[in-house]
């Protein structure tokens, strides 16, 4: 049975394996590093002793002088990934719901992410709405390089 729990440092190896299954090896950041870091909220999906999914949320105060959207758009989903063999069974959706609920204080506060077009439908099913580049620019002063999505607790499905 799949369970969701807070990530622990002992999960790092299995979380690295999830990242490697989801992102190119050359990706510039190792998301398992966030586990235990203040201002982040990290959860794993487990199937017995196996870690099959991971989500990392950033919820420290926004840094409006930062050069990247992830520094300015808070709370922000840094990573969500599920091992290929465990996909399409609702694990990703459960991780996103847990991640969003853990960092949002009130019903209408937005939480943000950046994503590729091929995964946009996954977020739209969960109630996320695509932000226009002008909306992001007005909110945090940067033109997004790619797709930006947001959701509030009120809209999360
Ligand atoms: C995206 C990802 C986390 C989804 O995990 P998952 O466990 O397969 O997702 P779920 O089973 O919870 O899917 C929930 C719904 O979204 C749909 N869905 C899943 N992936 C989708 C996609 N890429 N595009 C459109 N819809 C998708 C499912 O069919 C399901 O729909 P339903 O509720 O109508 O049945 C997983 O495919 C993954 O790890 N991908 C690689 C890493 C990645 O792209 N992460 C996002 C970085 S921005």
UniProtKB/TrEMBL annotation:
Claim: Thylakoid is one of the keywords in the record: no
The protein's name: Predicted N-acetyltransferase YhbS
Molecular functions per Gene Ontology: acyltransferase activity, transferring groups other than amino-acyl groups
Pfam families from the UniProt entry: Acetyltransf_7 (PF13508)
Signal peptide limits: none
Domain annotation N-acetyltransferase: ranges: 2-154
InterPro entries: Acyl_CoA_acyltransferase (IPR016181), GNAT_dom (IPR000182)
Keywords from the UniProt entry: Transferase
